[in-house]
């Protein structure tokens, strides 16, 4: 597959930016690749469409082919879809005892994952955990959890024969409260397929436990079935996240993409084996790399992009050392600032800028203001950017209007430019041993 993709990408013509045709050709193959990786058809189609809109017209990084550029764009878009809003590994387990409900089909890996998570909570977060098996269907299931509990040194709720799942859940809750547990985990029974009895049972347990987290455990190798399962459980029970098991196998993990796209629920962990420590926090970059299978190219493009940024920064430093600092330089600075965590962060790092960083801080400037300033610079003509001295009243009005802002905003930007420019000149005069020149090394 990777070979076929590379083939197509190589055929794309070398040019400055990606044409619609280039992107279309490449994405036709990407779509096939996604389907082969077990991504469902509608999801693959939507995904390709999004990337198409995003990629067309994008610049191709120097020393990279358009094909390689498309790979990077596809990869980044995959990561975007896979990424949830919150830290995937951070479970809500405050307000003890916090219930965690584990749901899923039979054989998906619920019991194993329950124990793996309990071990993680105990060892990483120092939580006192109680596990309870609610699987009254398979006699051996309760024993299985008890054995795992002994193995990892986590308590399990004593087994009472003949009790129903709701009663067990209630007993677990009471026991967790009395025993001073931080977390109690409910490992429910599964079926071979979704059925009404299973859902009704899980629903009843959910209602007595009122779980902080409801994690769906699914076999990552089951592709489209896993997605249907997730959809069903989410509709009926409401899940807060997904654990994908058997990701140690050679499946390509396309289910992760579909599941995320269809349910919108975050993937929290992946199971990577039968052992108790074979559980990892979900990393979108890793799964994206696996689905696409072109990690080398992605790394290559990233490297090229970094190199170019470094080259640009060096050029600017040289100009600044000569006392030249125009609006293009300022714009680059502003963009860097956004990247590096705002103005204070950036200025704090620049030689001689510590004081100004404090001023900026006290002025309460933040990213939205940085973006406004960039918009103002974009609204200037090429000549104006290169020579800010041209900026007189009528031009100012035009520029401010073009950015949808006030002339006073532009005045602020110009004041900032003047201050920075003065500072550059002073530093430039410090000669060969000057701070800027040292900073460039
Ligand atoms: P449950 O029916 O959902 O409770 O599933 P179990 O936890 O009993 O797991 C079923 C089988 O899958 C067991 O043999 C586990 O050891 C195995 N298993 C669970 N998670 C993983 C995983 O991430 N990788 C591999 N290779 N096997 C797993
Ligand atoms: Mg089980």
Structure overview:
It is found in: Cell inner membrane; Cytoplasm. Pfam families: SRP54, SRP54_N, SRP_SPB. It is an enzyme of class 3 (hydrolase). InterPro entries: AAA+_ATPase, P-loop_NTPase, Signal_recog_part_SRP54_M_sf, Signal_recog_particl_SRP54_hlx, Signal_recog_particle_SRP54_M, SRP, SRP54, SRP54_GTPase_dom. Keywords: Cytoplasm, GTP-binding, Hydrolase, Nucleotide-binding, Ribonucleoprotein, RNA-binding, Signal recognition particle. The chain has 441 residues and is an alpha/beta fold. It folds into three domains: 2-84, SRP54, nucleotide-binding domain (Four Helix Bundle (Hemerythrin (Met), subunit A)); 98-282, P-loop containing nucleotide triphosphate hydrolases (Rossmann fold, 3-Layer(aba) Sandwich), CATH 3.40.50; 322-440, Signal recognition particle, SRP54 subunit, M-domain (434 Repressor (Amino-terminal Domain)), CATH 1.10.260.30. It is built from 20 helices and eight strands. The chain has helices at 2-11, 20-36, 41-55, 66-82, 110-125, 139-152, 165-178, 196-209, 224-236, 254-263, 284-292, 295-321, 327-339, 342-349, 354-362, 367-378, 382-386, 393-402, 407-429, 435-440, and strands at residues 98-103, 129-133, 155-156, 183-187, 213-219, 241-245, 267-271, 279-281. Strands 3-2-4-1-5-6-7-8 form an eight-stranded mixed sheet, with helices on both faces. Helix 5 runs parallel beside helix 6 (139-152) and helix 18 packs across helix 19. The longest helix has 27 residues, at 295-321. The protein is elongated. It starts with a helix and ends with a helix. Residues 10-15 have low confidence and may be disordered. The chain binds guanosine-5'-diphosphate and magnesium ion (MG). The site of magnesium ion (MG) has 4 residues, from helix 5. Guanosine-5'-diphosphate is lined by residues 104, 106-112, 190, 217, 245-246, 248, 271-274, 278.
């Amino acid at each position: 597959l990777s070979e076929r993709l590379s083939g197509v990408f190589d055929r794309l013509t070398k040019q400055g930016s990606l044409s619609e045709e280039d992107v279309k050709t490449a994405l036709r193959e990407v779509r096939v690749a996604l389907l082969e990786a077990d991504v469902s058809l509608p999801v693959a189609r939507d995904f390709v469409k999004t990337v198409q809109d995003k990629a067309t017209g994008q610049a191709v990084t120097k020393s990279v082919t358009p094909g390689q550029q498309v790979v990077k764009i596809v990869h980044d878009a995959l990561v975007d879809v896979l990424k949830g809003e919150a830290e995937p590994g951070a479970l809500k387990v405050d307000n003890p005892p916090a219930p965690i409900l584990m749901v899923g089909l039979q054989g998906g890996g619920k019991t194993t994952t329950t124990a793996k998570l309990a071990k993680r909570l105990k060892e990483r977060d120092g939580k006192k955990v109680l596990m309870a098996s609610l699987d009254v269907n398979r006699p051996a299931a309760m024993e299985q959890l008890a054995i795992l509990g002994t193995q990892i040194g986590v308590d399990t709720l004593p087994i009472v024969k003949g009790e129903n799942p709701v009663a067990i859940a209630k007993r677990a809750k009471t026991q967790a409260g009395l025993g001073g547990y931080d977390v109690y985990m409910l490992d429910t029974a599964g079926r071979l397929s979704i059925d009404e009895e299973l859902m009704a049972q899980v629903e009843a347990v959910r209602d007595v436990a009122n779980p902080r987290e409801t994690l769906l455990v699914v076999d990552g190798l089951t592709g489209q079935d896993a997605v249907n399962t997730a959809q069903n459980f989410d509709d009926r029970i409401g899940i807060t996240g997904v654990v994908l098991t058997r990701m140690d196998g050679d499946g390509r993990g396309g289910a992760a993409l579909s599941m995320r796209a269809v349910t919108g629920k975050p993937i929290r962990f992946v199971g990577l084996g039968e052992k108790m420590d074979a559980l990892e926090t979900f990393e979108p970059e890793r799964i994206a790399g696996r689905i696409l299978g072109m990690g080398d190219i992605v790394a290559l493009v990233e490297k090229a992009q970094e190199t170019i940024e470094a080259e640009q920064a060096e050029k600017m430093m040289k100009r600044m050392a000569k006392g030249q600092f125009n609006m293009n330089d300022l714009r680059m600075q502003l963009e860097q600032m956004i990247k590096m965590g705002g103005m204070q962060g950036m200025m704090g790092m620049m030689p001689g800028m510590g004081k100004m960083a404090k001023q900026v801080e006290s002025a309460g400037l933040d990213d939205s203001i940085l973006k406004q300033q960039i918009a103002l610079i974009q609204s200037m003509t090429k000549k104006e950017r290169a020579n800010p001295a041209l900026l007189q009243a009528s031009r100012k009005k035009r520029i401010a209007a073009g950015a949808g802002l006030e002339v006073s905003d532009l005045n602020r930007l110009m004041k900032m430019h003047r201050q920075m420019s003065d500072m550059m000149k002073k530093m430039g005069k410090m000669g060969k041993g000057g701070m800027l020149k040292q900073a460039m090394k």
